[in-house]
């Protein structure tokens, strides 16, 4: 009964420590060897079986059991059985030897409970061992140690003695269970310098995403994973330093403008120099796809220098159409106010000029010869002036662009009235530009 209580006590301690530890790293060891005792039995065979649990890089907890089989004259008989709760101090803890060393020395020791023939009691053990990893889960081990026995008088007639043992064993250790790996990258959290790596990203031995070109941008975020580049450009190089990655830069050796795929624009007109047919365009001028200033009306003056950019005009008039400073008089038949074909042709020319130059305004003045009374001729000259005005309005000229419509009768002749030729010139409507 006492044996069951003691073993249960040791197992409970091991389970408690397991529950209080974040990582689940377990191993089982099985081995055998020989022992030497200071009793009259002398030497014998010994078996070893243990469970161990990883606590930290320096310590493992071990629940170990040894069975000693005494070498008697008849056969090997059970000499002792002892169970220990040991701490194993690993010298491959990163301070003395590297954790992944091919040879991993350790020291161990702890309290135990021994059954030695007809006696039992508390004892202890201590020793030195070496592990030789074969894989991440399997290792061979060899160790030598001391097992403290019990004092007694019954078993030996010569008096009191202490049944202690020296042992040498070897065997195999198999680890099981898994270390916590929150980001599932294959590197345990305790060794992972980057514990939140996205799923599926390749990592190095430290658990950090691989950065092939060493530019500080991991490969899974690096648009140029084999060329060292800038973090701001997703790991891509920028030889000319213009803020455009070489892979996107049409002019990678010359600093340029991001909007033009890294190409320069000397005159700032929005057209790259390599495509600009007019590379010296003044600042602010509107340009076409070739980088040349726009001339909307095609009169040879660019819009920014054209006072009338939508109307063709000579350069000497700043791109505006020339207004007809003087127009031919409209001539009428005797005692008539009806427009003659020649008069209508002249008015059509005036209409075209006024449409080409929206700023042009005119005045109309009616006249008559001296045949007839002054009052009659005044009405006749009024009718002639109003006929010319109505023609302009009927053909799309806004009334407000006809500044003045006046009539003078026979009072302002331009030729002598004593001949028919002179009177014909006086039967007229004069057209003047309103300034």
From TrEMBL:
<feature type="region of interest" description="Disordered">
    <location>
        <begin position="198"/>
        <end position="293"/>
    </location>
</feature>
<dbReference type="GO" id="GO:0007155">
    <property type="term" value="P:cell adhesion"/>
</dbReference>
<feature type="compositionally biased region" description="Basic and acidic residues">
    <location>
        <begin position="236"/>
        <end position="246"/>
    </location>
</feature>
<keyword id="KW-0626">Porin</keyword>
<dbReference type="Pfam" id="PF02412">
    <property type="entry name" value="TSP_3"/>
</dbReference>
<keyword id="KW-0998">Cell outer membrane</keyword>
<feature type="region of interest" description="Disordered">
    <location>
        <begin position="414"/>
        <end position="435"/>
    </location>
</feature>
<keyword id="KW-0812">Transmembrane</keyword>
<dbReference type="GO" id="GO:0015288">
    <property type="term" value="F:porin activity"/>
</dbReference>
<keyword id="KW-0406">Ion transport</keyword>
<protein>
    <recommendedName>
        <fullName>OmpA-like domain-containing protein</fullName>
    </recommendedName>
</protein>
<feature type="domain" description="OmpA-like">
    <location>
        <begin position="319"/>
        <end position="435"/>
    </location>
</feature>
<dbReference type="InterPro" id="IPR011250">
    <property type="entry name" value="OMP/PagP_B-barrel"/>
</dbReference>
<feature type="signal peptide">
    <location>
        <begin position="1"/>
        <end position="21"/>
    </location>
</feature>
<dbReference type="InterPro" id="IPR028974">
    <property type="entry name" value="TSP_type-3_rpt"/>
</dbReference>
<feature type="compositionally biased region" description="Basic and acidic residues">
    <location>
        <begin position="420"/>
        <end position="435"/>
    </location>
</feature>
<keyword id="KW-0732">Signal</keyword>
<dbReference type="GO" id="GO:0009279">
    <property type="term" value="C:cell outer membrane"/>
</dbReference>
<dbReference type="InterPro" id="IPR006664">
    <property type="entry name" value="OMP_bac"/>
</dbReference>
<dbReference type="InterPro" id="IPR006665">
    <property type="entry name" value="OmpA-like"/>
</dbReference>
<dbReference type="InterPro" id="IPR003367">
    <property type="entry name" value="Thrombospondin_3-like_rpt"/>
</dbReference>
<dbReference type="InterPro" id="IPR036737">
    <property type="entry name" value="OmpA-like_sf"/>
</dbReference>
<keyword id="KW-1134">Transmembrane beta strand</keyword>
<keyword id="KW-0472">Membrane</keyword>
<dbReference type="GO" id="GO:0046930">
    <property type="term" value="C:pore complex"/>
</dbReference>
<dbReference type="GO" id="GO:0005509">
    <property type="term" value="F:calcium ion binding"/>
</dbReference>
<dbReference type="GO" id="GO:0006811">
    <property type="term" value="P:monoatomic ion transport"/>
</dbReference>
<dbReference type="Pfam" id="PF00691">
    <property type="entry name" value="OmpA"/>
</dbReference>
<dbReference type="InterPro" id="IPR050330">
    <property type="entry name" value="Bact_OuterMem_StrucFunc"/>
</dbReference>
<keyword id="KW-0813">Transport</keyword>
